[in-house]
Amino acid sequence: MIKKYSKINGIIDEDCVSNLRYDLIKSLKRFKNL
Predict the structure, then answer these.
(1) Band (1; pLDDT cuts 50, 70, 90)
(2) How do residues 6-20 score in pLDDT, each as one tens digit?
(3) DSSP E strands: which ranges in the chain?
(4) How many CB atoms lie within 10 A of CB 20?
(5) CA 5/CA 15 separation, integer angstroms
(6) Are 13 and 5 in contact (CB under 8 A)?
(7) Residue 2 near residue 15, CB atoms below 8 Å
(8) Cα–Cα distances in Å, from 12 out to 5, 22, 27, 28, 34?
(9) What is the C-alpha radius of gyration for the chain, rounded to an integer number of angstroms?
(10) Looking at the whole model, is its pTM more than 0.90?
(11) How far is CA 25 from the centre of its chain?
(12) HEC secondary structure over the chain
């Protein structure tokens, strides 16, 4: 399951960080394909 960080708790899970990194890489690849 994908964990999202909650602004209420102000906690960023390691899973969330890796997910953000994955989204960033995915968007960069998408940008290169354009």
Answers:
(1) very low
(2) 555 555 566 656 777
(3) none
(4) 13
(5) 9
(6) yes
(7) yes
(8) 5, 15, 21, 22, 31
(9) 12
(10) no
(11) 9
(12) CCCCCECCCCECCHHHHHHHHHHHHHHHHHHHHC
Locate 17 and state its tokens.
Answer: 């960080």
* Pair 11, 5: CB distance under 8 Å: yes
Q: Scanning the structure block, which residue is given the tokens 């997910």?
A: 19
Q: Are 13 and 1 in contact (CB under 8 A)?
A: no
Residue the block writes with tokens 């990194």: 21
Report phi then psi at 31, rounded to 5: -65, -40
